[in-house]
Design a protein that fits this description.
By secondary structure, the chain is an alpha+beta fold. Helix content is 21%, strand content 52%. The protein has two domains: 1-30; 33-137, Distorted Sandwich (Coagulation Factor XIII, Chain A, domain 1). The protein has one helix spanning 2-30; strands at residues 34-41, 43-45, 48-50, 55-57, 62-70, 76-84, 87-96, 100-108, 115-122, 128-137.
């Protein structure tokens, strides 16, 4: 009789643990990772973008891609992928450590790189969370 009670107790514990894990996994899946703010800017000061825009002069030197990511329930990794036209120019992995996290990358812009640019913000499951388009003019 004691063996039966022990087996039942262990089974109850396993079912409780499995149910807890299933709920935790569903909660993370239900949480949506989003780019609340995504801009190209001239600088980042005190974790805030400075002079955001979508058109910059080729003499700018370097630009920042600033993102505020919301919705992470655990530490995750996102990626900023910088493109000049359709050519990938930089790929930078960034760690998101809380449900609301500000982060940024920077890219040196060469004077001859005039034209369409964009940065893809890639989520932890390789999904495109946001595309931030901008122009470099002469």
């Amino acid at each position: 009789m004691k063996k039966i009670i022990s087996v039942l107790f262990v089974l109850a514990l396993l079912m409780t643990f499995s149910l807890y894990n299933a709920v935790a996994i569903k909660a993370q899946e239900a949480a949506t990772i989003e780019v609340e703010v995504g801009v190209i800017c001239l600088d980042v000061v005190d974790r805030e973008p400075v002079d955001p825009g979508d058109t910059f002069n080729a003499a700018v030197g370097n630009l920042f891609c600033y993102t505020k990511i919301v919705g992470a329930q655990e530490s995750i990794e996102i990626t900023h992928v910088w493109y000049f036209g359709e050519t990938e120019r930089a790929r930078i992995n960034l760690f998101i450590e809380s449900a609301s996290w500000r982060t940024w990358t920077t890219k040196i812009i060469q004077a001859h790189e005039v034209g369409d640019w964009h940065v893809e913000v890639i989520g932890p499951d390789s999904e495109i969370l946001e595309t931030i388009k901008f122009q470099i003019t002469s």
